[in-house]
Specification:
The chain is mainly alpha-helical and about 625 residues long. The chain has helices spanning about 1-20, 25-40, 45-50, 55-65, 70-80, 105-110, 110-125, 130-145, 155-165, 175-180, 190-195, 210-225, 225-245, 255-270, 270-285, 290-305, 330-340, 355-360, 370-375, 380-385, 400-410, 420-430, 440-455, 460-480, 485-495, 500-515, 520-540, 545-550, 565-580, 585-600, 600-610.
């Protein structure tokens, strides 16, 4: 009897101990399961529809509720059937112990409370000192202290940065975040080292991105008023911009590049006129709703006023790492681990070293949940890991997504292709998606056909699309968890809806945008608004149209430095002016144009002229 009781006690203790040891893993798995469940239910898919023929609804339910994990092959099929796009993983909630990948805005506005809180969360979960915890410490310190003119990295911190950013072609949120934080505190020598490393980008597929990195380093040198650095690299920067165009030609970063040029003007010649240009730009940026951007510029200018060159003659330059194409998930992890300076012992995954080593050599597999945990620890996006599964031995990607097909369709006309090529893109996509639930396929087909028509292939039946539009509208209104799939539908559905439906839809869009700050798909929402305003003007003047256009005044109050938002704001003001035709509405448009010029939004103005050219007089945009 005593032996039986003792055995039960040991069994009970073992169960409790297992529960304690697995609690973190269960929390992570529940977070991952909920991410998929939110997309599935938001798209009105049953468990059986999402699971498909390969596995059971029960297995999927257990995964969604964090009870059991699934294989990466099952995850890949689930992603396809639910219609999740690679960019949607940017919405995946960051675990407390994950390397911080969402700090850029907090760093720019110097939100010390939020940065301090995130730092405490990270180090409470990562008590062992590794190359990543050292880097995270440097990142948080820089984010908190960068506006202070006297704050610079010490030699140890700079060496940590130099040892990590050895592949300039890596342009993930990890690299952008570090670059954002280090600009002000970096020494003359660190800025030079990073500048020279970009030289090899001149000869590979990321060469057009080099200018964005150089602009960040340039801004860092300006904050320190490092004239020696500016004189050394000015010709290189000028050549880069002449070759690929001023950064103002990009929708993203227009304001920052314009501000950088004004700041350089002030550093070279500090006078009242140059200072006023900077102050005017900050004021106009704030008046247009870009509150965080205006604060960022204010902090930069304040630091620059007291800036002075800083040197670190102890800095060593490790050899840059080569670019290696990895064709397995394990290979991606191996390359990333070496890039980050991590040892197998540094990885916390509930797996022994031999298991991880076999995985890196493609001798064994890890579950999907374990792969996601690896991604979080190594600051790599989940789609990067999953994408390796679709690379052939010839380096081609076998995977097809709505996003890739849409991108291909958008560029067909510029590549001299015809309607047959457009139909081929559609056919190949729909064949690849043949096991995807009907309502997802319907939305995908709608997006691709409307895209083909917009780029000039007018051989598709719009009557069928008008029949589908009300169903897609109900789908959009029902979902409170949008991904790129919904944003692309929104981008193309507006011309097929009446103003009552559009009003309901954009009220819902306002709620969605408030829950997804900074998400990739937001630009498509702003693009849809611009298109809706054009449709409003074509409908001719009516109280219904005016009320609709005025109801979207809220886009002016969104704190977001996005050129597509400026485009939507400008289109709204132009629409009201063309409908109302008053002196007040005309002056509002004039004021908007002047603010675009003062803040460097030249591409916005060029796009507005092209967008509205058939509806406004020839001289509408001239004279400002």
């Amino acid at each position: 009897m005593e032996d039986t009781c003792y055995a039960k006690f040991v069994s009970w203790m073992g169960y409790k101990l297992e529960r304690v040891l697995n609690v973190d893993e269960n929390v992570e798995l529940k977070r991952l399961g909920k991410f998929f469940k939110d997309f599935r239910t938001g798209r009105d898919l049953t468990l059986k529809e999402a699971a498909g023929e390969d596995w059971s609804a029960t297995t999927l339910s257990r995964f969604e509720n964090g009870v059991s994990d699934i294989s990466k092959e099952k995850a890949t099929g689930l992603i396809r059937r639910i219609g999740i796009q690679p960019q949607d993983f940017l919405l995946y909630p960051e675990a407390p112990g994950a390397f911080p990948m969402h700090l850029q805005t907090l760093i720019q506005i110097n939100d010390i409370n939020a940065l301090t809180k995130r730092r405490a969360e990270f180090f409470s979960e990562n008590k062992k000192t590794t190359s990543m915890t050292k880097l995270a410490s440097v990142l948080f310190d820089a984010g908190i202290h960068w506006p202070e003119a006297k704050y610079h990295f010490d030699a140890e911190a700079e060496q940590i940065i130099a040892d990590r950013l050895t592949i300039p072609e890596n342009l993930t949120p990890f690299e952008w975040e570090i670059q954002e934080a280090i600009m002000g505190p970096a020494s003359h020598e660190l800025l030079m080292l990073l500048w020279h490393r970009t030289d090899r980008m001149k000869h590979n597929l990321r060469k057009e991105e080099r200018g964005k990195i150089l602009a960040k380093l340039w801004l860092g040198a300006l904050m320190d008023r490092d004239v020696e650095f500016l004189d050394t690299f000015r010709s290189d920067l000028t050549e880069e911009m002449d070759k690929y165009g001023e950064l103002e030609s990009y929708t993203e970063g227009q304001e920052v590049w314009h501000f950088t040029k004004l700041l350089e003007q002030w550093v070279v010649s500090q006078n009242v006129a140059h200072e006023k240009q900077i102050d005017d730009m900050i004021t106009d940026t704030q008046l247009m709703g870009d509150i965080s951007q205006a604060k960022y510029f204010t902090l930069i200018f304040a630091r620059t006023r007291q800036g002075h060159p800083h040197h670190n003659y102890e800095l060593k330059n490790p050899d840059p790492m080569p670019i290696v194409v990895r064709k397995t998930a394990g290979g991606v992890i191996l390359g990333r681990r070496r890039y980050l300076g991590l040892h197998l012992d540094d990885i916390v995954l509930g797996r022994n070293k031999s298991t991880l080593r076999r995985f890196e050599k493609a001798e064994s597999q890890l579950s999907f949940g374990s792969l996601v945990q690896l991604c979080e620890q190594m600051a790599v996006l989940v789609p990067t890991l999953l994408g390796s599964m679709n690379v052939t031995l010839q380096g081609q990607n076998r995977n097809i997504t709505l996003w890739l097909s849409w991108s291909d369709m958008v560029s067909l006309k510029a590549r001299g292709k015809n309607v047959a090529d457009a139909q081929d893109v559609i056919n190949q996509t729909m064949e690849f998606m043949k096991d995807v639930p009907a309502n997802i396929r319907q939305g995908q087909l709608f997006v691709l056909q409307r895209t083909a028509m917009e780029v000039g292939f007018n051989h598709f039946d719009e009557s069928e699309q008008r029949t589908v539009a009300p169903k897609l509208l109900r789908q959009l209104l029902k979902s409170n968890h949008w991904g790129l799939f919904e944003y692309l539908i929104l981008r193309y559905i507006c011309p097929l809806l009446g103003f009552d439906d559009l009003s309901l839809l954009f009220q819902h869009v306002q709620r969605i945008l408030s829950k997804q700050p900074g998400f990739f798909g937001r630009s498509y929402a702003y693009g849809a608004m611009s298109l809706a305003f054009v449709c409003a003007v074509k409908t001719k003047s009516s109280d219904e149209v005016v009320n609709f256009v005025q109801s979207l005044r809220w886009i002016n109050d969104i704190d977001e430095a996005d050129g597509s938002r400026w485009m939507a704001m400008g289109s709204r003001e132009i629409a009201l002016d063309l409908i109302q035709k008053t002196e007040t509405s005309k002056n509002v448009v004039k004021q908007f144009i002047v603010r675009c010029q003062n803040t460097g939004h030249h591409k916005v103005l060029a796009d507005l002229k092209d967008y509205w050219r058939e509806l406004v007089p020839n001289d509408y945009f001239s004279g400002y």
